[in-house]
Design a protein that fits this description.
Blueprint (H helix, E strand, L loop, with lengths): L1 H20 L3 E16 L8 E15 L2 E15 L12 E20 L4 E21 L10 H4 L6 E12 L4 E10 L6 H4 L12 E12 L1
Antiparallel strand pairs: 1-2, 1-8, 2-3, 3-4, 4-5, 5-6, 6-7, 7-8
């Protein structure tokens, strides 16, 4: 909560100063790409779960080197074991899809002196999302482990995340984005679920994902 309040104070202050210096301008854009996701606590290591990342972006140009972006995004996240093979009923895969609202502070750098635009944008911010779909593929063959199908009923449908990344522009309107997102709350809270599975150990679960997107700004 303190982090959210601090970001809001910084944004309001920056917008006020920017508006006093020059009229505030706005823009919009779209983006789409792929995620590579994982979930801590599911006994599966590595960013092995592929998914889509799609959305729309609104931009406020506060200062020449400072912007504020809001995004409405659809993210396919989850995890996948390295030995996953659906045809042989081997391994495990977890799908958790979220619709999220992102708020990002963007700093511009690497100015193009001829075409007069910044080629690099470093950004960071927060995201809040709601789960819109989940699916579990888990044969449950390990007697020491609770099948993901049984745990999925206790998943948290709300996600709060931190976002860090960069946009690299090819032109003034197009480019690619690299991004790292980390959940601040738990997808599964072991303290709440463990009493229901007394004979087996339950681990808390928290999501992460990397993304690579192509964007177009109008």
């Amino acid at each position: 909560m303190f982090l959210i309040r601090s970001i809001i104070v910084v944004l309001v202050t920056g917008m006020t100063l920017g508006a006093a210096a020059q009229p505030l301008r706005f823009g919009s854009g779209v983006f789409g790409g792929v995620n590579l996701a994982q979930v801590d606590g599911d006994d599966m290591q590595g960013y092995d779960k592929p998914g889509l990342n799609l959305g729309m972006r609104g931009m406020a140009f506060i200062l020449p080197k400072l912007e504020f972006h809001t995004e409405l995004a659809y993210n396919q996240k989850g995890s996948q074991s390295k030995d996953f093979d659906k045809s042989t009923n081997k391994g495990r895969k977890l799908f958790v899809d979220f619709v999220a609202i992102n708020a990002l502070v963007v700093v511009n750098d690497w100015f193009h002196p001829i075409k007069e635009y910044y080629r690099l944008q470093v950004h960071g911010g927060i995201s809040t999302g709601r789960m819109v779909r989940f699916q579990v593929i888990d044969p449950g063959s390990d007697p020491r482990r609770v099948p993901l199908k049984e745990l999925s009923y206790y998943f948290n449908g709300i996600d709060f995340s931190m976002i860090f990344g960069a946009h690299l522009k090819f032109t003034q309107k197009t480019g690619i984005s690299f991004r790292y997102s980390r959940s601040m709350n738990k997808l599964l809270d072991a303290d709440l679920v463990q009493p229901l599975f007394e004979r087996k150990t339950i681990n808390s679960m928290k999501g992460y994902f990397l993304s690579l997107d192509f964007f177009y700004h109008f």
